[in-house]
């Protein structure tokens, strides 16, 4: 999927309904970052491996019927001033 999503809520609904997996949504977001960040210079660090692993966990939880929050599986960016395990904080 190469198109941006309309809203986080619509993406969350598609993930919850199984129309798209969290991993597919994450890979789409990472693809947009890769395509645009040289021009926009928005990201210092992109944790691709961790994002994909987290998305896979979200997909397994959804398929197992685990109760999920309203944005379960929706990829997000975290400002680099927030301490995150395994990623650089600046």
Fold and architecture overview:
With about 90 residues, the protein is an all-alpha fold. The protein has a domain at about 10-65. It has three helices and no strands. The protein has helices at about 10-15, 20-40, 50-65. Helix 2 (about 20-40) packs antiparallel against helix 3 (about 50-65). The protein is globular, with a radius of gyration of 14 Å. The chain starts with 7 loop residues before the first helix and ends in a 27-residue tail after the last helix.
Helix-strand topology string:
HHH
Please report the number of helical segments.
3
Helix content: 40-55%
By helix and strand content, what is the structural category? Answer: mainly alpha
Shape summary = globular
The profile of the biggest β sheet is: none
Task: Please tell me the overall pLDDT.
Answer: 91
Total beta strands: 0
- Cα distance spanning the termini: 32 Å
Radius of gyration over all CA atoms, rounded: 14 Å
Low-confidence stretches: none
Beta strand %: under 5%
Please render the helix and strand layout as text:
Blueprint: H1 8-17, H2 22-40, H3 48-63
Helix pairs in contact: 2-3
Summarize the structure.
The protein is mostly helical.
Keywords:
90 residues; 3 helices
